Every structure is written in C-alpha cells, then in structure tokens.
Structure prediction request, 121 residues.
Amino acid sequence: MFPKNKKLKLPDLSKIDHSQLTYLSWNDLRSNKKFIVYELDGNMVGIECKFTPTSKKNYCSVCNCLGEVAYFSTVTKAKKAKNPDYYKSIGNLICADSSECNKKITNVDYLITFLRNSLEI
Ligand SMILES: [Zn+2]
Prediction:
C-alpha cells in the first residue's frame, strides 16, 4: 500500500474502536506525514500525505465540523506525457485528531473524491 515506506510502523489496530471507524488514519509526527486508509470499491487503498499542524480552528473538509485542523496535502499520480517532472499536489484541511474526525463524519463524499483524485482511480 505504501511502497516507499517498507518499514512503515502501523498503528496498534487493537487500540482502535472499530465501531466508530469510517476511515483509518494515523500521523507520523516525526516525518510530518499522515496516512489515510479507506476501503474503496472493496479494496483497501491508502495515501500518504504531508501533514502540517495549524493549531487553529477551522472546518475540516472530511467531516465538515469545526475543530482543530491540520493541513494535509498529497501528490497525485497524474502525469503529463510531455513533462515527466509534472506533478500535481492537492490538499485541504483535516481534523488534527482523526479519531474525533471519525466520530463526526457523516458523509464520505469528500474523502472518496480526494482518494480518487490522488490515486487516479
Ligand atoms: Zn474531520
């Protein structure tokens, strides 16, 4: 799922409350990365994002609630044939605490669109 992160440390899944889990996400604060895993069309897909804490309150783009947010961005797989160096970065605000976000999320449209855009699926 994360080919560039072979030594990726996965979160302790036993500590996660599955009943309130819409998507799986965890932060690697050492490298300022955020990982998001979601079951899309029956397949588990994952993206790696750059994670920038803001320590400000704003609306999360995933759950649409006001709370403490962080800025996350990822590079899409979109490529332009004539320009191999081209890459497109997309990003938005997301709850700093993804377990809180999971509790508040009622609509996964944004999350799905974001995953589809970044993975080109
Ligand atoms: Zn949220």
Remarks:
- The two ends are 14 Å apart (CA to CA).
- DSSP finds two helices and five strands in the chain.
